[in-house]
Amino acid sequence: METVHVDPAPATYVGTILTAVRSFNQMRVCAALDDADATLGLDVTIDEIIFPALRVVGTFWSSGTLDIAHEHLLSSAMARWVASRSAVLPAPSRRGTVLLAAGPEDLHTLALDCLDLLLVSRGVEVCNLGAQTPVASLLVAVRSLHPTAVVICSHTPTVASPAVRAVRAIADAGFPVYFAGSSFSSQFFRQNSPGVPLDGTLQESADLITHRHTTPPPEPAVLPRARFRQSVVASA
Q1: What is the pTM for the complete model shown?
Q2: Looking at residues 137-162, what average pLDDT do you find?
């Protein structure tokens, strides 16, 4: 893959990605993300580069400066990069499984997949059900896995009602539930919701869930040095 080295500031990486998108250079988008990850770390790459770049391209598409094809190329490149980054992470090291799902009628999963990546990078075991997860299917997974927390994401306000039902169904089943995305912007829902909103950055959301709902593995038992020496002498 092509290597990209730029000034190590998030805004500069966003500019590099925008230039790559204009020329339909998907490989250069991924190369810029690789360089950002190596230079600034995964959390910064996701929160300060991936989503700002998406917002910039979305704004340019809305104004007619870019075509919808440019936005699709960027979304596809970023999804590919997140998947490739997830594939090389180590096995879970913490106790507790976190269940992720998009709303029953929501197709947008990049934020969900990025949260998945950040949780796994922290040693958390994740089960990600992906897009358009029906409420009944979500409950099947919950009752089988007994997760320590559930996160519902929905970023399409026009399909908010099914997503709200999913949050309430999980809470009624007795599991801690979090929600994120513009589908949950209603103040009435937020004031009467059994769930907890994730309104911060993805890094903050991953830290919150990790600390509240998973536990690190126990420290390995270590024999005192004096006893270890004694056993060695005795066996000599």
Answers
A1: 0.88
A2: 93
